[in-house]
Structures are given as structure tokens and as C-alpha cells.
Amino acid sequence: MDLKQGINGQWRNRWTFILAAAGSAVGLGNIWKFPYITGENGGGAFVLVYLVCIALIGIPIMLAEVMLGRRGRMSPINAMLYLSRESKVSHWWSGVGWSGVMAGIFILSFYSVIAGWALHYFILALSGEFYQIDAQASGAVFSGLLANVGGLTLWHTIFLLVTLSIVAAGVVKGLGVAVRYIMPLLFILMGILVIYSAIVGDFFAAFHFLFDFNGQALKWEGVLVALGHAFFTLSLGMGAIMAYGAYLPDKFSATNGEITGKISLGKTVLIIAALDTIVALMAGLVIFPIVFSNPSIEPSAGPGLLFVSLPIAFGGMFAGSFFASLFFFLIFIAALSSAISLIEPTVAWLVEVKQWPRVKITFLLGAIVWIVGLGTVFSFNIWSDLKILGSTFFDMLDFLTANIMLPLGGLLIAIFVGWVMKPSIVKDEVGDIHHGYYRWWYMILRYLSPILLALVFVITLINKLGS
Ligand code: TRP
């Protein structure tokens, strides 16, 4: 047995980790958020900036985050405490973990409300509600849901309860097994939908919208959104991936048919990022052909884009009710495996420091998340006119987490691994990796990622002040 093992458990093999991390990464961010922010920010140029952010900032920082988790072998706060002691620097570095705790609670609070929409749509689809539905009727269904405070609260509660039950039971045992079936199923279904959407919708308009470079459509604000989304979609900057990294053993025995020696983190991270990006682009290719073949749906429709456009496609489709219910169920599952990773770091930390039962900790935290979530529920109805700095409670939480807290957390992680930790430790911990690739990663993490991050922050700030 591996002596370096935390009290919150350990993955069975490398693929369990990959699937769990991919389960965390692939979620509402890919299927719901990516299409609508692409629509709001004009398409092609935004997509390109997003892809560049994934490659030059997201992937290097993901590798850094997994590495910190595996070396720290504990929840993010404690891992950062341990690592700052090891590097003989201030214990204030554990602030990375603290900001992650807050970000996780904030994100989960609205994530649960949106995942609740998917649950509601699953039931609607089952009951044949979308049969032959047109754009107008579909819009009405969605606004009806948003106006229904009781309904939104109910779905939010149900989603959160399911999430909490899984986290209470322990993430390592169940999650790895579950995602083994969910991820392939999600891929197959998305594939079917891309083809269907291309047949019934306007595939070429969608393709040009997503991939033509139209620089004039992108504003600085959009660059910050693209950067923030790179963090959001890869689950970076708050310690989720760090917490999962802590459950990764150094080596797996050869009897599992797995490699011996340090597991290479480089390839592992690339696989996760690739899966995540493919799902997002597929979601765009499902939704936009339908959007462009229905003049009454604007690409810039905002958070309702998925929920307004897809029922129309399913409504006219052979066995549409069946496919629609399957699709919304999969969104629910994808959201579930992401939601778990938003709260797991905090639960793991409380288990370590308080040694209370996991169940108690999970549900106490869940109660806080539930209450904060009501703010998002109200953002779409009774509080819709209540603006904090010009945005609703939901918009504010979304902006604060994705565009500020996560990139800032990422910046600190890059600086810690690139500048604070001893290079020899970093090199050893990253494991088997081609020396050339290692050097590239280390240079990018030290210089390029932090500079790009800081640049986007400064320019956006100047822009904000100037306007
Ligand atoms: N990545 C998930 C998505 O795209 C959301 C998510 C899960 C997340 N865990 C996270 C975002 C941690 C930021 C940090 O839906």
C-alpha cells in the first residue's frame, strides 16, 4: 500500500482519475455556457481566443494544479499549507485554497439552479411537451419556468440533494465507476445530435459563425470572458482539480496492467483538456445550426439559448421526445459529476481539520449553498430588477467567480509552481515526461501564462475605468 495516502481516499487507477477529472470538467460549462457566451460575444474571434486560453493558460495551469494536489496529498487549503512550509514561504499561500472554498460555494449555488432547469426539461421532454413545438412556444415554456419561483426552488433543491448524497458517500468510490459509463454515452449522444442538427438546421451558418475570424465582433470584455471560461470549463483555479490530484497515487502496481513509476501527469492532463474542448465545440455545432434556421432566436439570447433552441429541434425530430429526455438527462448527469467537484475540496478540508462525519459536513455546507442559490433563483423573477453594479445577483456571481476569482487563483498557482517551488521538486513530481515538453511547460507556466493573465486583467480594468 502507498504510504503517502490522504484520509479522503485514493483513485483505483489512472483512468479513474482521468474520467473523474473529465467528469468535473465536462458539464454545464460546455453544453450550456459555452454556446451562449459565444453567441453573446460574436462567435469566431471569441472561440479562437478561448482556444488559445485553453492551450496557453488552461493546460499548463491544470498540470500545475494536479501536481500540487498530488504532492500536497490533502485538501487544497492543507496542501498549500504543507507546500508553503516545504518551500519555506508564508502560510498565506493557503489563501489559494480559501478563495477556492468561496468560489466553490458561489459557483455551486448557481450551478445547481441551472442544472435544475435541465431536470425540469427532462420531465417536460418525457411528457411529450416539445412535440412539434415552434420557436415562440418554446420561448414561452422557458419564460414560464423562470417566472415560477416555487418550481425553480424545487428543482434547485432536488439537484443539490442528489449532489450532496453522492459527496456524503465519498467521491472516490462511486464517482470513478459512474463516469465510466456517462462520458461515452454523452459523446455518442452529442455525435447523433450534431448530425441531426446539421441535417435539419443551417450547418454552414453555424460553422462560419463559430470558426470565421471576425475580430471586429470581439470586445475586450469578451477576451476576459473567454479567459474566465477557460478556467471555468476546465474546473481550474479553485482547487477542484487539486483535490482530485490528491487522490492520485504516485504509482500503480504493474498487476493492474498499469505503468509503474511516477504516473505521467502531462498526458493525463492533455486527455482531459481535449475531451472537454471537443464536447464544447460539439455543443456549439448542435445548437447554432438550429439557432440560425429559426430567425426568432438570437445567438445572443443569453442563458436561455440552449433551453429555447433545443426543444425546437427535438420537437420536429423522429422519436424526439425520447432523444430530448435522454439529452436533458445526460446534461443532468454531466452537471452532477461537475457539481461534486465544486464542493469536494471543502468537504475534504473539513474532514481533515474537524474530523466530523463526512455526512454531517456535507449537509451543513449544502445548507449554505442552498441559501445562496436562492439569490440566483430570484435573479430571474422577483429580483430581476435588483441590480448590483448593473447586473443581477446571478450575473454578479458568475462574473465574480469565472472572471475574477478563478483566473486570480490560477495566477497564484502558476506563480507558486513556477517561482516558489524548487525546480527539482517540480520536475520530479510531474513524472515521466519528455524532457523537451517539460521545458516548454515550465517556461510557459513561469512566463507566458502569468503575463497573459495579468495583461488581460490590467487591460480590462483600464477599459472599465475608461468607460
Ligand atoms: N467545469 C465545470 C463545467 O464546465 C464546472 C466546474 C466544476 C468548475 N468544478 C469546477 C468550475 C471548479 C470551476 C472550478 O461545467
Structure description:
The protein is mainly α. It has helices spanning 14-25, 28-40, 44-72, 76-86, 95-126, 135-147, 149-169, 171-200, 203-211, 220-233, 240-246, 265-292, 305-315, 320-354, 358-379, 393-420, 423-430, 435-466. Helix 1 crosses helix 8 (171-200) and helix 14 (320-354) crosses helix 15. It starts with 13 loop residues before the first helix and ends with a helix. The model has no long low-confidence stretch (mean pLDDT 91). The structure holds tryptophan. Residues 24-25, 27-30, 107, 232-233, 235, 238, 240, 338, 341-342, 406 line the site of tryptophan (TRP).
Helix content: over 70%
**Strand composition percent:** under 5%
From the spread of the alpha carbons, the general shape counts as: globular
Ions, cofactors, ligands: which are bound? tryptophan
Question: How would a textbook summarize the main sheet?
Answer: none
* Class derived from helix and strand content: mainly alpha
Measured on Cα atoms, how large is the radius of gyration? 21 Å
Rounded to the nearest angstrom, the distance between the terminal CA atoms is 59 Å
Order of helices and strands: HHHHHHHHHHHHHHHHHH
Low-confidence stretches: none
What's the count of strands?
0
Mean pLDDT: 91
Number of helical runs? 18
Multimeric state of these chains?
single chain
Can you lay out the helices and strands and say which pair or pack?
Blueprint: H1 14-25, H2 28-40, H3 44-72, H4 76-86, H5 95-126, H6 135-147, H7 149-169, H8 171-200, H9 203-211, H10 220-233, H11 240-246, H12 265-292, H13 305-315, H14 320-354, H15 358-379, H16 393-420, H17 423-430, H18 435-466
